[in-house]
Amino acid sequence: MKYAISLGNSNLGRLAIEFLAEKGLAPEDVVAVVRSLTKADDLAARGVVVRRGEYGHEPSLVEALQGVDTLYMISGMAPPEERIRQHRGVIESAKDAGVRCVVYTSFIDTAQDSPFFAAGINKDTEAFLKASGLSYTILRNGMYVEADLDYIPEYVTAGKIANNIADGRISYISRRDLALAAVHCLLDAGHDGKTYTLTGPEAVTQARLAEWISQWTGKAIPYVPMTDDEYRDTFPEPHWAEVVVTLYESVRLGNAEAVTEDFETIVGRKAWSVPEVYDRFYR
Prior knowledge:
With 283 residues, the protein is an alpha/beta fold. It is 45% helix and 17% strand.
C-alpha cells in the first residue's frame, strides 16, 4: 500500500515523511509529490518515491498519484479563489487516480463570520471532499507554535512583540505534533469520516508568550498591542499584510482558542506545550 504526501517538500510534508519512516513504512511505499524534483533529491536518495505533481495542474497530479491508496493533502498557499480551484483539482485528481482516502489539513478557524480569508477556503475544501465519494479524515490544525518561536531573534532585536491580537488566545501546537497526528490517521484504522481539531494543551495570550520569551532569553520582551491598520502598515507586501492581519483579527475574536483532546485521542499522549517545544528544539 502506498501513501502520498502532497507538497512533499514543505516543512509539514517532510515531517510526515520522517514519521512514516519511524513507524517502519518502507521508503518505496511513500510518494512525495513535489513541484521541483531537484529540491527533493535527498528524499529520493533515501528511497522515497519522488514524483512531480503541481497544484493547479491536474494531469501531473493524476500521474503522480497512480498506485496510491491514501493521500495526505496539505493545504496550498495560493490566493483564495485560485486555492479553492486548486484544492478541488487535487481531490478530483486523487479520485481519477484511484486514491481511496484523503487526509486533509484544514484549520482551526471554522467560524461562519471569520474575517480570516482562508477560513472560507477550508470550508469549501472540507465540503467538496465530503461530497467526493472518497474516504476522508479532516484535520483542523491549530496554529503552529514554530511561527512564533522561529521569530524569537527578531523579537529580541525589536525589543517587543507587536501585533493586532490584543487579548486573543491561541492554542498553539507544534508542527511536529501535527505531522505525527496526520501519520497516525494515515496508518491507523478508525479515522475514516472523522473531523478532528488539533490543538495544544492550553490557549495563551501574546502577553503570556512575551513573558516566556523574556524568561528564556533574559531580555525584557513586552507585548505591545496594535490596531489592525497600524499592524497592516508594518508589512511591505499588501497580500501578506491582509493574510496576517485578518488571521490575527480572527484570533482576537476567539477563533483560535479552542482546546481539545483530539490530538491525545489520535496519538495517545498530550500535545507538547509551548515551553516543551522550546525546551526540545530551541534551547
